[in-house]
Specification:
Blueprint: E1 2-3, H1 9-13, E2 17-20, H2 26-39, H3 51-63, E3 68-73, E4 76-85, E5 95-102, H4 111-125, E6 130-137, H5 140-148, E7 152-163, E8 166-176
Parallel strand pairs: 5-6
Antiparallel strand pairs: 1-2, 2-3, 3-4, 4-5, 6-8, 7-8
Helix pairs in contact: 2-3
């Protein structure tokens, strides 16, 4: 377990710690995610996720040799991020899609950038070449996070999701990782 480097004075005052997730974190992770399911169009999932389902998701990602990280502040999980396979076919094996969620009310404090930077560092060490990050729009925080980390917007899919009685666009950003030295 490593202490995350502080990217802002506020995140440093949080005593933020980034570590690998475990299935025992599933309850807190599910609570973070379920907020977005119930109250936003940020995720296209429409039914709350149980602790058991979240535990299985964490285990599945990690069984594929991919990272799932959590950010903790004051012994509470304030965000999580993970990588999953971009596509199933073997030629895609060096590409992943990343996901990040922060506990409601935690935006703008450097947590997302610290957590995502830690994830990208692990992916780089593991030889991942291309990283894709998607976001339902509008989502100014996600757009700013991806672009601040060097991602380039590569696609926008119009009206591909329908949730809370509205059509939702999805945009994708891509980052090519340089090999670690």
């Amino acid at each position: 377990m490593r202490k995350a480097s502080a990217l802002s004075a506020e995140s440093a005052s949080l005593d933020l710690r980034v570590r690998a997730a475990s299935t025992s974190d599933a309850d807190q992770i599910a609570r973070i995610y379920n907020y977005y399911i119930e109250h936003t169009v940020i995720t296209f999932e429409e039914n709350a996720v149980t602790v058991g389902e979240m535990s299985a998701r964490i285990a599945e990602v990690q069984s594929q040799g991919l990272p799932w990280l959590v950010a903790e502040a004051d012994s509470s999980i304030v965000g999580y991020s993970y990588a999953s396979r971009w596509k199933a076919r073997s030629a895609y094996r060096h590409s992943v899609e990343t996901t990040i969620y922060l506990k409601d009310g935690s935006n703008g404090r450097g947590i997302g950038k610290t957590l995502y930077s830690a994830l990208l560092a692990i992916l780089r060490q593991r030889g991942i070449h291309a990283v894709m990050g998607g976001a339902a729009l509008p989502n100014a925080a996600s757009v700013a996070l991806h672009e601040s980390l060097g991602f380039e917007r590569v696609a926008t899919f119009r009206q591909v999701g329908f949730k809370h009685d509205q059509w939702v666009d999805v945009a994708y950003w891509q980052l090519i990782l340089a090999p670690s030295s």
